[in-house]
Design a protein that fits this description.
By secondary structure, this protein is of the alpha+beta class. Helix content is 18%, strand content 34%. It has one domain. The protein is built from 2 helices and 8 strands. The longest helix has 11 residues. It is globular and about 45 Å long.
């Protein structure tokens, strides 16, 4: 996963894309915190994903904490918690850390 900084903390993040590859990347990034995802059948509908905290030993699915739509960034903060961030806000406050080859 790519790393980004907001000049205070380094976080991991990915931009949500509703495609086979994008969903597989999202599953790998979020693990059990990906509650569900989908896309309406209308031609211009955007894909969405529900992200929430997993409560173990709980029979019911936990409610979503965040809803990501296509183009949003899903961010893992320094505490290991996930949240969503709209593209314009993310681009304004975060910058990618470019790893230089040694």
């Amino acid at each position: 996963m790519k790393q980004y900084t907001n000049n205070l903390h380094v976080v991991q993040a990915m931009q949500f894309e509703y495609s086979d590859t994008g969903i597989e990347q999202l599953k790998g990034f979020l693990g059990e915190e990906l509650i569900q995802y989908g896309k309406d059948r209308q031609p211009y509908a955007m894909g969405w994903a529900e992200i929430g905290a997993v409560e173990h030993n709980h029979n019911l699915a936990p409610p979503a904490k965040y809803i990501a739509t296509e183009g949003d960034y899903v961010v893992k903060d320094i505490n290991g918690e996930f949240f969503t961030c709209k593209l314009d806000f993310f681009n304004e406050y975060y910058s990618e850390i470019i790893q230089k080859d040694k």
